[in-house]
Design brief:
This protein is an alpha/beta fold. It has 7 helices and 7 strands; from the N terminus they run E-H-E-H-E-H-E-H-E-H-E-H-H-E. A 7-stranded parallel β-sheet has the order 3-2-1-4-5-6-7, sandwiched between helices.
Length: 269
């Protein structure tokens, strides 16, 4: 792959593991320097993916890119401000922002119980809102004004296939991801004439370590060599869409949402 992002700096939130890590590695392979992030230094070890964030930095550097790691809750304004200070001190401004951090994770660190519309605890609603919607907004407000000033930049927000249909289980997460999708459109409208491109990717279920550890997996959907699209995605299949959106190949794509879900949301609006 051509190093078309050489000289660029990318910040991928939630990239200590899972989809975010694969996105970060894909962008690094395209030539960008990449800042990786997780809630804490050791969070990447939660499901056995990496020893810590330092290990992820080394994976990025092995691709020939510079890298650094930052930690903190994206829903905490002070934490986001510190991340911005640390990143700019080492790399200067951010050219590419991928808002990937989030997930259906409640106040206790696992899935909310119960996890439906009428029963989900208040504390879990607040935690989910901070981790998915408010966090995306806080990071965007920290880094995108500089892009507007420079008249150059790319933002990719990560939604979810759950944002495009009605659900009972995981309904608050789905609602917040729908808000992220619409926030993407609103942000795209606001920066339309600025030279900053804004889009979103809505992944379907993907074979990350967390996905496999926190739910009952349908074994028939684990076979990525099947001709059927009724399966779970490989993380790289999600990352490929992000890579296209940060590339010059999508230079006139703005305010769009790409559903990378194998047709899961083929019929819902």
């Amino acid at each position: 792959m051509a190093k078309e992002l050489a000289g660029k700096v990318a910040f991928v939130t939630g990239s200590g593991r899972g989809l975010g890590q694969v996105m970060a590695q894909k962008i690094a392979a395209m030539g960008a320097d990449v800042v990786v992030h997780d809630l804490t230094w050791t969070a990447p070890a939660t499901f056995g993916e990496n020893e810590d964030l330092g290990a992820v930095v080394r994976l990025i550097e092995a691709l020939g890119a510079r890298s650094m790691a930052v930690t903190g809750n994206i829903g905490d304004r002070a934490a986001v401000a510190q991340m911005k200070t640390d990143i700019e001190a080492k790399f200067g401004h951010v050219d590419i922002l991928v808002n990937c951090a989030g997930g259906d994770i409640g106040a206790s660190g696992g899935k909310p119980v119960p996890n439906n519309v009428l029963g989900i605890p208040y504390e879990d609603i607040i935690t989910l809102t901070n981790n998915n919607l408010i966090g995306t907004m806080m990071v965007t407000q920290a880094f995108v004004p500089g892009m507007v000033e420079r008249q150059s930049g790319i933002v990719v927000n990560i939604g979810s296939a759950a944002a495009h249909a009605g659900y009972s289980g995981g309904a608050i997460y789905a609602t917040l991801k729908a808000a992220v999708v619409h926030y993407t459109r609103c942000l795209a409208a606001e920066v339309l004439t600025s030279g900053v491109r804004v889009n979103a990717v809505s992944p379907g279920p993907a074979k990350t370590a967390r996905f496999q550890a926190t739910r009952v997996v349908e074994s028939a959907k684990m076979n990525s060599n099947s001709p059927s699209f009724d399966r779970y995605a490989e993380p790289a299949e999600i990352a490929d869409a992000v890579a296209w959106l940060v590339s010059d190949g999508s230079r006139f794509v703005h305010g769009q949402v790409i559903r990378v879900d194998g047709g899961l949301t083929l019929f819902p609006g």
